[in-house]
Design brief:
- With about 325 residues, the chain is mainly α.
- The protein folds into 2 domains: about 20-155, no CATH class; about 160-300, no CATH class.
- The chain is built from 13 helices and 3 strands; from the N terminus they run ααααααααβββααααα.
- The protein has helices at about 10-40, 45-55, 65-75, 90-105, 115-135, 140-145, 145-150, 160-185, 210-230, 230-240, 240-265, 270-275, 280-315, and strands at about 190, 195, 200-205.
- A 3-stranded antiparallel β-sheet has the order 1-2-3, with helices on one face.
- Strand 1 (about 190) and strand 2 (about 195) form a beta hairpin.
- Helix 9 (about 210-230) packs parallel to helix 13 (about 280-315).
- The longest helix is centred in the C-terminal third of the chain and has 36 residues, at about 280-315.
- The radius of gyration is 27 Å and the shape is flat.
- About 25% of the residues are buried.
Length: about 325
């Protein structure tokens, strides 16, 4: 008598396995169609967001965020969860938040442009997340957590937050400039953010806070830490290093412009290095940041090599 082979796949199992890729493809196609419809529904709002970012002194980086997010998903696609489902609870919560933000942007008519665009971008972001939970599910969202978190940078900071950060950065930058003046031996008198130097008086204004460069530096550090580092403490240290680096950059910029005005002439306050020198000082701040990244990366690779070498020379375990 022939016994049935319990290891052989049944027709039902074969059908389930063959239908799984088809179901996943349908969900992915549905998500893509959802995104197209969503972008169409938000077309006018996204146009306002784009125009705002293009002319903003703080949020111009927003234009690159969706492109970088798409690239992050692309390079991690093979590692993202293949278990697609619908997480209705999270989808409804995200959609409710999106509707709330959209209604708030229309209800509060006295909002400034910055806050209005913030609510619009928040609403769009929430609907994107809702679509992900609806078509791809919670497991896929967890596996793509960093790209989705990174997409949140497309939401402009509220006006109150921008003012708070600018004032804090202005005060801290003035303090750093004070120490740099002392180190350089430059004679000066200080009154808050005002520095009286030989032949010129300089005020550290909000425009000197470098808030946009600092935000871009934070985003760059987060991106680099996630892509090239694996240990949590090294990632955190790299990101936290951005704060002193940004303040040191601002203080150094004040020092350079001040010394040029003292030793060359007060007209240097209107020079290109003051009006258009921001990218140069930003590039200088990237040097120590990438040096830290290189050092941390080298340490991790060295540790991985040591671990692999120890595993290869470990004696085999003999069974009793």
């Amino acid at each position: 008598m022939n016994l049935p082979n319990i290891d052989s796949p049944t027709a039902e199992n074969v059908t389930e396995h063959s239908n799984a890729p088809a179901s996943a493809n349908k969900r992915l196609i549905g998500w893509c169609i959802y995104l197209v419809i969503l972008c169409g529904a938000f077309a006018l709002y996204l146009r306002e967001l784009t125009a705002f970012a293009a002319h903003s002194q703080v949020h111009s980086y927003i234009l690159l965020i969706p492109l970088v997010t798409a690239y992050l998903i692309y390079i991690r696609w093979k590692h993202l969860s293949r278990e697609l489902s619908s997480s209705w609870g999270y989808a409804l919560l995200s959609a409710a938040a999106g509707i709330g933000a959209l209604l708030a942007s229309q209800y509060f008519i006295d909002l400034g442009q910055n806050d209005y665009v913030t609510l619009i971008a928040l609403s769009f972001f929430c609907f994107v997340i809702a679509g992900i939970f609806l078509f791809l599910g919670n497991k896929w969202a967890r596996s793509a957590m960093f790209p989705l978190f990174f997409l949140a940078f497309m939401i402009p900071l509220p006006e109150a937050a921008v003012d708070l950060l600018e004032n804090a950065s202005k005060e801290a930058s003035a303090e750093v400039a004070n120490w740099l003046f002392l180190i350089s031996g430059t004679p000066f008198l200080r009154n808050g953010t005002l520095f009286q130097l030989p032949g010129i008086t300089i005020t550290v204004a909000k425009e000197c806070s470098g808030i946009r460069s600092s935000l871009v530096l934070v985003i760059t550090s987060l991106l680099a830490a996630n892509m090239f580092l694996h240990t949590t403490w090294r990632r955190a240290l790299l990101v936290c290093a951005v704060i002193p680096l940004g303040l040191l950059r601002n203080g150094f910029r004040v020092l350079v412009i001040s010394l040029l005005c003292v030793h060359i002439g007060p007209d240097m306050i209107n020079s290109v290095i003051h009006r258009r020198g921001g990218p140069v000082f930003f590039a200088l701040s990237l040097v120590p940041l990438f040096a830290m990244l290189w050092l941390f990366r080298r340490q991790e690779l060295k540790r991985q090599d040591e671990t692999a070498r120890s595993a290869s020379i470990a004696p085999p375990v003999q069974a009793a």
